[in-house]
User: Fold this.
Amino acid sequence: MTSNDTAVLRVAGRPVGRYVTRPELPVRLSPRPYLHPVTTLSGTAVTELSPADHAHHLGVGVAVPDVEGFNFWGGRTYVRDQGPTELDNHGSQRHVAFQLRDPDGFVEELRWVAAAGELLRERRTVAATELTDQAWALDLTFSLTNVTKAPLSIGSPATNGRPGAAYGGFFWRAPKEEAPPDVFTSGTEGGTEAHGRRADWLALSGSGWTLVFAGATEQTRRDPWFVRTGEYPGVGSSLAHDERLPIPPGETVVRRVVTVVADGRLGRDAAAALVRKAVSP
Assistant:
């Protein structure tokens, strides 16, 4: 580990991820902690930070475009019958403390704060585990608790009227390469087929790397995948796909996504085997 503001994840003594807790970012980007760079065991970077196409894409983290009307994703807000709109509604995720810090992971407490005050309190658990000499797993769990006295709900551009844009929740921005990455699940091939659908796992395969995302709880597996490959390479798990997700006062929403980070281009059988190893009890 490093200073109070950053944490370095290590697998078998090798650094594989840098976690920034207090980034100095413009309000418009919805400042929040993030993991970047995340690398394979051989050192290939598999994340991107504030790329030119979407400056608010911050490596790996948790981002939600609509928490009771406040933007914790960054950039413009999709307004029904109006489209993407610049609004002064950005919130921030504020690091409170590490409750546990080890070379292979941490437990963190965060406050989700906007103009209305603190809306959500989060407990985030991140762990890195070696799978083989060419693959490791990033295990990320987030628990969001409504700390207000009123009901809150989480939405997305899709629930606000933009079909196919149900992003919000766990999100991984991958690096842009000359050719778009390949996408496959256990039963589908291609980003169009996988986008907006449920699958136990989903793989994104680039020039010399493969990421395999898996919902590690029954509730997480119910969330459809958000997939982009053409405009930019990114994968997320959708908290609000068809309808807004309510969080009553004092209630908590929990999701857990395990991501296999592998050197090379994995096939379907190899991806499935690594997922089984990564999420086994």
